[in-house]
Every structure is written in structure tokens, then in C-alpha cells.
Amino acid sequence: MYSHVMVGSNDPERSRKFYDALFEKEGRTDDKGRTAYGRKGSVFMISKPIDGQPATHSNGGTIGFAFDSPEEVDAWHQRGLAAGGTAIEDPPGYRENAFGKLYLAYLRDPDGNKLCGLYRPEQ
């Protein structure tokens, strides 16, 4: 649904290595040092903040990535852990709430950004 999301990083090279592993592909880095990853028409980017201030994560913010199966979510989660991410909240699994039945897994990247892998079964 989103066109792009960009998160700040205080160590873009560390972040690039984490996200290369998480997405199983190398990101493209432009001449300004921003690295981008595309999937199904959406773009996720990492960058040092352009204002020169330190990057911080959003308290209450979450970036969700859509997947086609629970197995893809689990593999994404495992890659994130292996690449230096931190598991947070409940273990990967199904949850039901006002948005219906969802399969979810949560991570924090090395800069503290909250990420969610999501599979939405047919309802």
C-alpha cells in the first residue's frame, strides 16, 4: 500500500548488511549514500539523516512488510535475527484482532527501528 518508507541510520554500512540479509538481495546505493530495496512496487530505504542530526527510531512506529505465506514471514524473521536484529513482542504466529486473522513476526533492526513481517490469509 505504501510507495516508500525511509529510516535513518547512524551506520549505513551496518544497516545495508542487515537489510541485504533480511531481504536476500543487495540494495542499490545512490551517490548520496541512500540504499533502496524494492518489492512489488514499493521501496524501502535507509539513509543518514539529511539534517546531520543522529538517527533515532520512532517510538510507536512500525514498518510492515507483506509476504505471501507464514513460511516467508518465518524465513524473513530468521534472516533478521541472524543478521543482528532483535526479536520483540510475541513469537511469530497467528493473531486475531479487529483487523482479522494475521500471521505476524516482529524485529528491531540494529538502529532500533521496529519491523513487522505480515501474512494476511484469505478471509
TrEMBL record:
Which parts of the sequence belong to the VOC domain?
1-120
User: Where does the source fall among the domains of life?
Assistant: Bacteria
Q: Which PROSITE patterns match?
A: VOC
* Gene3D superfamilies listed in its UniProt record: 2,3-Dihydroxybiphenyl 1,2-Dioxygenase, domain 1
Output the SUPFAM superfamilies linked to this UniProt entry.
Answer: Glyoxalase/Bleomycin resistance protein/Dihydroxybiphenyl dioxygenase (SSF54593)
Name-wise, this protein is VOC family protein
Recorded source organism is Sphingomonas lutea
